[in-house]
C-alpha cells in the first residue's frame, strides 16, 4: 500500500495501516470531552453520597447510628466516585497531552484508559443498583409505629416497608408517589425528601457515568488500534 501523502489541503491518502489522521483526531477529542464530564459526575456522586450521611446538614444522626444502611454504604463514593475519578483523571490528562501529539498517543495509554473505564462502568453500575434499593426501601427515621397497628409506639426504623407490607415495587409506588405519607417520619425533619432527592441524583449520575464510561471503552479500543495523535 502506498504511504500517506500530504498536500496543501492536508492528508489525502491512507497511512500504511489504513488509518486516517481524521480518525486519530476524533479519538483524542473524544477523550478531552469524556474526561472532564466524568470528573464532574464523579465529584457530584461523592457529594450526594456524603450528604446522605448528614440529614438536613446535621451530624448527630450519624453519630447516633440513625442513618439508613444504604446511605452508610456510600455507593456514590466507592462506586460512582473513586473509580470514576481515577478513570476521568487519566482520560483527561491523556486527551490534553495528545493535543500537541508530543509522544503521548501510545496504544498502551489507550489500553490503560480502557481498563480504567471498565472499572468506572462497574462502579457506576453498583452505585445504580444500591441507590435504587435505597430509594425503594425509604429512609431510616423516627416514626409512630402505633399508627400502623404495630403496637410499638414511636421508634426508629423503616416505616414504609413496615407500614405497607407489600412487595417492593408496590411499596415504592406507594410512598414515592404519595407525599402525604412522608409526614409519618417525625425525625430527622424532611428526611424522606432528603433521601428521595439524593438517591435520585445518584441514580441519574450513575446512568450518565455508565454511558460515558461505555463510550470511552469504545474510544479506548479505537485508540489501541488507531493511536491518539492528531497529526504530526
Automatic annotation (TrEMBL):
- From the UniProt annotation, give the residues forming the signal peptide: none
Tell me where it resides: Membrane
Q: Transmembrane residues, as ranges? A: 33-56, 76-96, 108-133, 191-212
* Keywords per UniProt: Membrane, Transmembrane, Transmembrane helix
Task: Give a GO cellular-component term.
Answer: membrane
Q: How does it sit in the membrane?
A: Multi-pass membrane protein
Fetch the PANTHER family from UniProt: TRANSMEMBRANE 4 L6 FAMILY MEMBER 1-RELATED (PTHR14198), TRANSMEMBRANE 4 L6 FAMILY MEMBER 19 (PTHR14198:SF22)
Report the family membership. Belongs to the L6 tetraspanin family.
Protein's recorded name:
Transmembrane 4 L6 family member 19
The organism named in the record is Pipra filicauda
Chain's gene name:
TM4SF19
Amino acid at each position: 500500500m502506498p504511504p500517506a501523502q500530504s498536500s496543501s489541503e492536508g492528508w489525502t491518502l491512507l497511512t500504511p495501516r489504513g488509518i486516517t489522521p481524521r480518525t486519530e483526531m476524533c479519538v483524542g477529542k473524544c477523550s478531552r470531552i469524556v474526561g472532564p464530564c466524568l470528573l464532574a459526575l464523579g465529584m457530584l456522586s461523592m457529594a450526594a453520597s456524603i450528604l446522605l450521611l448528614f440529614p438536613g446538614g446535621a451530624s448527630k444522626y450519624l453519630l447516633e447510628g440513625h442513618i439508613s444502611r444504604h446511605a452508610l454504604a456510600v455507593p456514590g463514593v466507592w462506586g460512582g466516585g473513586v473509580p470514576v475519578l481515577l478513570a476521568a483523571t487519566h482520560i483527561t490528562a491523556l486527551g490534553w497531552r495528545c493535543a500537541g501529539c508530543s509522544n503521548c498517543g501510545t496504544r498502551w495509554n489507550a489500553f490503560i484508559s480502557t481498563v480504567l473505564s471498565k472499572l468506572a462502568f462497574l462502579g457506576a453500575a453498583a452505585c445504580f443498583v444500591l441507590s435504587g434499593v435505597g430509594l425503594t426501601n425509604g429512609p431510616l427515621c423516627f416514626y409512630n409505629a402505633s399508627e400502623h397497628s404495630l403496637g410499638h409506639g414511636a421508634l426508629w426504623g423503616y416505616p414504609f416497608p413496615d407500614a405497607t407490607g407489600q412487595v417492593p415495587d408496590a411499596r415504592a409506588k406507594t410512598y414515592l408517589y404519595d407525599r402525604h405519607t412522608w409526614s409519618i417520619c417525625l425525625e430527622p425533619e424532611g428526611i424522606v425528601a432528603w433521601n428521595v432527592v439524593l438517591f435520585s441524583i445518584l441514580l441519574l449520575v450513575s446512568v450518565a457515568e455508565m454511558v460515558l464510561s461505555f463510550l470511552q471503552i469504545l474510544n479506548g479500543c479505537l485508540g489501541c488500534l488507531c493511536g491518539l495523535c492528531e497529526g504530526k
